[in-house]
Amino acid sequence: MSEDKKKLTTSWGAPVGDNQNSITAGSRGPTLIQDVHLLEKLAHFNRERVPERVVHAKGAGAHGYFEVTQDLTSYTKASLFAEVGKRTPLFVRFSTVAGENGSSDTVRDPRGFAVKFYTDEGNYDLVGNNTPVFFIRDAIKFPDFIHTQKRHPQTHLKNPNAVWDFWSLSPESLHQVTILMSDRGIPATLRHMHGFGSHTFKWVNAEGQGVWVKYHFKTEQGVQNLAPEVAAKLAADNPDYHTEDLFNAIAQGDFPSWKLSVQIMPIEDADVYRFDPFDVTKVWSQKDYPLIEVGRMVLDRNPENYFAEVEQATFSPGTFVPGIEASPDKMLQGRLFAYGDAHRYRVGANHQSLPINRPHSEVNTYQRDGQMRADNNGGGSVYYEPNSAGGPAESAAHKTSPYEVGGAADSVAYDHNDHYTQPGDLYRLLSEEERTRLVQTIVGAMQPVESDEIKRRQIGHFYKADPEYGIRIAEGLGLSIPE
Ligand code: NDP
């Protein structure tokens, strides 16, 4: 053994005498419990996994930066948008939604598109998808929806009956279902897809004036998709195809990039727009609110360690910075709680102090203790607030901006219930070839559904979006259009 090789140690730092043979009573054994190095090795190995994310379990990540290309400081005081040319480091995690940690990358599924900006006023997490809308618009339906995407409790198999039963009874899903079943439902790589904040957020400028905002990351590699037959073959031959592609591209210096644009809506428009702008199953037409470029995101560095960085990364749409706030979007409001809660359960109460999640700016809180507190836990400094010890204090300039609310507290849906115009608009903007593939994909996905009642109910939704859309799917399934 070469002299300059580092000594192997136990996890408590003592040199290890033998890492090949456990201590046994005689050469045959049994093994002695006094071999604490063996006990520690086996026990730690049993604990190598943290709970898998219930959704977005399979992911790939990369480091990079965001650079401002256009001055939008009249809309937001967020420091990451402060001046043209300013760069902010970031970490991105892409993911599929429904599959487990080892599942195939090239399945038909939305892709998570989560960005953590390490701004100089704290972290800002933009936790979106590669689609501008979502299947449901109220967080109260989320656990039920995800159950339909997961495995049947008895057979442990995916269950198309549950999928289409839920969608056919939740017509607000039609827009996202149409996007999912279109060519863009299986991106060629993680580099060849757009990203969206999906929800409406609020931007606030230095004067305290607000606007509603939506984010669009447009891929500079161009949108490219996989034909279903190619995707199916890859899913079997190389389940990590997207993960591998992203890592290799960055390793070879072929850095993927996205242009970030926003749509800006004046606050008062929200009361009069023809769709509810907070309903995440709808887009804002770009003819009404055109895209305004604000910057560019580049991914230029691979993680050093998958678990430490990608698996332990914790994103939450509630991780805001001054100048960026929540909107009343009901799906967002639920996510503001659910994501942080998932990470407190999955990674622990101190997940935000792990290196991948730790803000690059100074953190001064009165939080103390908790499992896995790895820093000095505030030392002997003052541990309550208010205090007369000169401890960190609030700054009124950073209060969340106020806004008017009204109406009765009640369990009610959004006022606007047109679930059909926008999916129809999407169908109508597709080319004939794209429509044919969309119909083929939907027919193929619905064929295994056992109940004709479910199929007919769903055909009715396609028909209401566009009669041609409904008729072609009904024909493909050999069914009639319901009354
Ligand atoms: P526009 O014609 O102004 O915009 C159409 C949008 O659709 C563009 O953003 C385009 O983006 C995108 N698009 C084009 N082909 C596809 C496809 N096969 N799958 C998904 N998106 C596609 O019209 P509107 O803004 O009035 O929107 C019309 C419809 O377009 C909407 O109902 C919605 O379904 C869809 N759409 C709208 C978006 C929005 O934010 N307004 C965003 C994405 C889709 P690209 O550069 O990618 O081609």
Would you kindly provide a brief summary of this structure?
The protein is an alpha+beta fold and 483 residues long.
Topology:
Layout (H helix, E strand, L loop, with lengths): L35 H11 L12 E10 L18 E10 L14 E9 L2 E8 L12 H8 L10 H9 L5 H8 L13 E2 L4 E4 L5 E10 L8 H10 L3 H11 L5 E10 L25 E10 L4 H6 L12 E2 L4 H17 L74 H9 L2 H15 L5 H14 L1 H11 L6
Antiparallel strand pairs: 1-2, 1-9, 2-3, 3-4, 5-7, 6-7, 6-10, 7-8, 8-9
The chain binds NADPH dihydro-nicotinamide-adenine-dinucleotide phosphate.
Describe the protein.
This protein is an alpha+beta fold. The chain folds into 2 domains: 36-135 and 170-398, Catalase HpII,  Chain A, domain 1, CATH 2.40.180; 421-477, no CATH class. It has 12 helices and 10 strands. Strands 1, 2, 3, 4, 5, 6, 7, 8, 9 and 10 form a 10-stranded antiparallel beta sheet that branches. The termini are far apart. The mean pLDDT is 97. Bound molecules: NADPH dihydro-nicotinamide-adenine-dinucleotide phosphate. The site of NADPH dihydro-nicotinamide-adenine-dinucleotide phosphate has 17 residues, from α9.
The number of domains is 2
Q: Specify the number of helices.
A: 12
| Element-by-element helix/strand order | HEEEEHHHEEEHHEEHEHHHHH
Based on the coordinates given, report the CATH architecture of the largest domain: Beta Barrel
Low-confidence stretches: none
